[in-house]
Amino acid sequence: MSGPPISPMPYRGDIDGLRAVAVVSVVLYHFGFPLQGGFVGVDVFFVISGFLIGGILWREYDATGRIRLKHFYIRRFRRLAPAFFATVLGAGAVAWALLLPFEFREYGKAAIASTLYLSNVLFFRQAGYFDTVSEEKPLLHTWSLAVEEQFYVFLPLVILLLARWRWGLIGALVAAWALSLAACIALTPVSPTATFYLFPFRAWEMLSGVLLAIWGQGSNRPWRGRAALSWLGLLLVLGSVVLIPAGPAFPGLLAVLPVAGTLLLLSSGTGDNPINRLLTHPLARFFGVISYSLYLWHWPVYTLSTYLRDGYANAGEAVVWMALSVLLAWLSWRFIENPVRYARRLPGGVVLGGTAIASACVLALGAYVYKADGLPDRFGPEARVHIAASGDFLQDFSRCYIADSLPLDGLEVCPIGPEGPPRVLVWGDSHTRAFKEGLDLAAHEADVPGLILWRAGCPPLFGLRKVESAATPAQDMACTQANLQIRQAIGRLDSLDRVLLIGRWSYYASGQGVGRDAHNRIALYPTDRPENTGQAQGALLSEAAASTVAELRQRVPQVFVLRQPPEIPRYDSRKAAREAAHAGWPLAPAPETEAEVPEAALAPRAAMAEAPWVALAERGAITVLDSWPRFCDGGTCRAVEDGTGQYFDNNHVTNAAALRVRDLFAPVFRGPSARAVLHGASSP
């Protein structure tokens, strides 16, 4: 029984124009043009989608009192699936050639999640949208498609469940809209990543479009002032595109602006006014009709091209790649989207079957890529050395925990060696993390229990606080608080008889990184004096080192300090792996990384950082463990030795290196009889 006919919504060219505004804003923003709020184009899409799809569902419900779910999803798959699978497989082919194994493995995982419409959950769990790492995820943009499809599981079911109570249904949709909006506004300051990615906090945007569609169909009164509404709507949308900053304040209350603007434009779009004439211009309509394919293709083109090129040389290059996105989008729309969407002889069963087969293929390929660790054999031996190093910085933290009792309450504690009260405390920054596997094995070999306390970018010294460009104020404050707590705790850890300090001393002494991380800055201040003491940073470090050692020696018999491994200024394992993997490619930039450096070039920076420890060692206050002979030979320090990567970046060693040099820590775990000697610390 077919039921009464369902009147289709008349074609509205202004909606294609509004789609054009949305997609062009997103594309220009992603390709680096100065539209700081261009990402709100996604919010415009959400409202349009709710208005159109919600209107379709409501008209069917209004005419028949029911919704044909199978027919609805066939239409969705017919519209969305062909271009989606073409993009995932096409981008995947390029990703296979370009991406390093661990990156390609993540592509496989993202392909699975996007096919299941769960990529928003995946990316929520991985990182924030505005992180620079986002630019290495070619399928990141599919989060918005996942949100939409999750909504279109929810909406038809709500309509079906409440189909007998028309006003109850409308009331439920209004309540869901209000609850979603309130949750989005309330939780954005607390968890902006969740409110950005997850469906419950975005549902109100699509429900706004749904409610407008219901209201518009229930009202036969002519709307007045359409021109004024159009101008106001356009002002809100374009103002949002230009002015809303990317960051943790979005979506929240800020998202109301583009949503409200879109609603005003949709509600006034049937009139004859300058804004509607602009939105129905042939160029606007062109970008509107290809908007779905353009949205799908532009992000893989951007991410993969910047990955290969290591960023764009200028705006002209960005325009070229953007033009390629438009070309791919038009080809997709012309030869993939439309033929399937408008194929009259393609039964619904074929659409469902084809979607199921394509989904199974992508799921199988994604699982294969993920299980095969991103297919590392695609690259040559040189690239594989650096690839191995780039993946060799994940330590085993299974024994680590957040202490919930004094004296270490609230600190992350990592036991090493055998079980038992710790005799050795290893205290340091991220260099301590880098050496963790070697420290743990050395402790086991000596049968001595130990404890690691570390915090990235936090000098293991008493009486200092830091302000770091790579850290937030909260992280800086946490460093000060943790060091104060450690200061109080050491005297209560009665089993301790040795302390080992590990840190990137050159960074703290000079106040900045070197080579590839020269842009990082750190300023040190005394915790008990005004900020501007007039002292050089190296002098502050020397003073803090002396006072810290003196205090530690009052509590434990022995204090050891690891001489910081030599920095390899221009080295980064991931960057080196890319350069080796893409060597000879026409568009690949010239190599920039250097895997070795003369010791003499490091001498001035090292001498300044090591001077405090040299003085203390000469007085017999500490024992310095000299790491340099393990990484330097014949006057040259190397990031790769005997085909094995020793460095993860320009200052952190790999797990392989930490295990190889673990005998360096033998004096710490075996007592004073094996006391080490500082080897040429003042002049490497």
Automatic annotation (TrEMBL):
Identification of the protein by name: Acyltransferase family protein
E.C. no: 2.3.1.-
Domain (SGNH): residue spans on this chain: 399-667
Organism of derivation: Ponticoccus litoralis
GO MF, one annotated term: acyltransferase activity, transferring groups other than amino-acyl groups
Keyword annotations of the record: Acyltransferase, Membrane, Transferase, Transmembrane, Transmembrane helix
Source organism superkingdom: Bacteria
Main enzyme class: transferase
Residue ranges constituting the Acyltransferase domain according to the UniProt record: 14-333
InterPro entries from the UniProt entry: Acyl_transf_3_dom, Acyltransferase_3, SGNH
Chain segments annotated as transmembrane: 39-59, 80-99, 143-162, 169-190, 196-215, 227-244, 250-266, 278-298, 318-336, 348-370
Gene Ontology cellular-component annotations: membrane
Keyword Acyltransferase annotated: yes
GO terms classed as biological process: lipopolysaccharide biosynthetic process
Pfam families: Acyl_transf_3, SGNH
